[in-house]
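Hey Z.,

So I finally got round to the pyridoxal-5'-phosphate thing we talked about over coffee. Here's the setup:
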Amino acid sequence: MENVVKNFNLIKQEIEDKKNVKLVAVTKTFPISHILPVINEGHTHFGENKVQEAMEKWTSIKQDFPKINLHLIGKLQTNKVKFVLPLFDYIHSLDNFKLANKIAEEQIKKNFKPKIFIQVNIGEEAQKGGIEINDLENFYKRCIEDFKLNIIGLMCIPPFDKDSKTYFVKMRELSENLNLKDISMGMSDDYMEAIKQGSTFIRVGSKIFGARG
Ligand SMILES: *Cc1c(COP(=O)(O)O)cnc(C)c1O
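And the result:
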């Protein structure tokens, strides 16, 4: 078994002086027994990409550890929004109006406002989720004015076969244009570069928990 605590603490040390950077430990596919050592280290930010899996894994553990913040980093279907609040404190994958509208309804119903990132299709890839760069400003404005969402920043998953740096630089520009201070970018292979370019939430899975099956 991977030494998850050792892996985790190495990354914590690496980012020790980056006070405004939060490490989201991505736990998808791993059972809670594999994650518990990191929870016991006092870590409070965890990410999952599937709603169903997260409900099964985190509903009771979140009651035992109320300081835990859960981050939804994967695609969110409109019909799952009712399960997402209030289980998830952060949503990183808002990328369409139908979803924005549904979250708007649900956050009133539940009296719970999640912190939300707008996912940007930064590599302009046909198959990938995310708002197109040209539509971003309009989408952002409607999210805050019409839907009253708590948009805290932008998120991206750069093309996997390319150097991430140029995409991270572009993300920072877009964030500054909208006056947003948080950016969710950087994964196991490129989180240090992401931090250099202004990331405030890095999403790291395999470098902590090992390869996924
Ligand atoms: C799985 C996943 C991660 C973590 O990826 P690693 O390469 O294992 O660090 C980060 N972000 C998203 C959106 C993911 O789905």
